[in-house]
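Batch job 17 of 40 flagged for manual review because the log was empty.
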Amino acid sequence: MIVNSLIFAFVFAIPLVGFIFYLIWKDKQKRNLGIAVLIILLVFAVLVAYQANKDKGI
């Protein structure tokens, strides 16, 4: 199962985060808003992952 998670991370998640950072750094006027949205998405993803895995004992 960890291999599937690593494949997902390298194929989908890391390029997606890189593209989001590219969009944020490209536009200097909305950079702070983009960083705030990215932090909110990160917190939301952590909360969802915690709720999904809390009964599995991982």
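Reviewer: the log was empty due to a logging misconfiguration, but the result itself is present. Residues 2-26 form the longest helix (25 residues). Unflagging and moving on to job 18.
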